[in-house]
Specification:
single chain; alpha/beta; Cobalt-precorrin-4 Transmethylase, domain 1; five-stranded parallel sheet; four-stranded antiparallel sheet; 4pyrrol_Mease; methyltransferase; precorrin-2 C20-methyltransferase activity; transferase; 4pyrrole_Mease_sub2
Length: about 200
């Protein structure tokens, strides 16, 4: 199994308890650089895998495949962690690695442990109080949207479908008892609650 573990923004006190426990229980830990290596060091040894910031996708794909080859051999027989700064599902090196793993090694199960992201770190350090809708962008085209407190789910889905969104995931009470995760708009209930989230994606599966 391969687990992407978010190590937070760089402050060692901001690792989650779950991240620390997963690091301690892993058979092997890889990281993409020195900062992540330092955060992991109090709990376990790690090995740096090179993920250079390049625009040449032919070279990048070769590097991704090489790293996936290394990880796959160990992830089939034990628990391998890839620890990285921030959160593994937001603008993350792990997202690219997971895609390559699923393409070449679909037999390797993947999972993630969330970490404190740059978004929430920014709000904390700048004393920014975000209590209404906001947009996060890296300058690329907007392909996904998250709706919090998604109480009237089918109404929301209809409105988003008109904007071109075609793949939907409903989640409720995440990491709590009675957690629900439902994929596909035809399976999503008509109503959610305060702890409901609706994820919409363009060009989805």
């Amino acid at each position: 199994m391969l687990i992407g573990v978010g190590l937070g923004p760089g402050d060692p006190d901001l690792l989650t308890l779950k991240a620390v426990n997963v690091l301690k229980d892993s058979d092997k830990v890889y990281v993409p650089g020195k900062m992540a290596e330092e955060l992991v060091k109090p709990y376990t040894d790690s090995e740096i895998l090179d993920f250079p910031m390049l625009r040449d996708y032919d070279v990048l794909n070769e590097i991704w495949k090489k790293n996936a080859d290394i990880i796959a051999n160990e992830a089939r027989n034990g628990t391998v962690v890839f620890g990285l700064i921030g959160d593994p599902n937001f603008f993350s090196t792990f997202t690219h690695l997971k895609r390559v793993m699923r393409k070449y090694y679909p037999d390797v199960e993947t999972a993630t442990v969330p970490g404190i992201s740059s978004i929430t770190s920014f709000a904390s350090r700048t004393d920014s109080e975000i209590d209404s809708s906001f947009e996060v962008s890296d300058g690329s085209d907007k392909k996904s949207k998250i709706v919090l407190k998604a109480k009237h789910t089918q109404d929301i889905i209809r409105n988003l479908a008109e904007e071109g969104y075609d793949n939907f995931i409903f989640a409720e009470r995440l990491f709590l008892d009675r957690e629900r995760i439902i994929k596909g708009k035809e399976n999503i209930p008509g109503k959610g609650n305060y702890f409901s989230i609706l994820y919409a994606e363009k060009g989805g599966k």
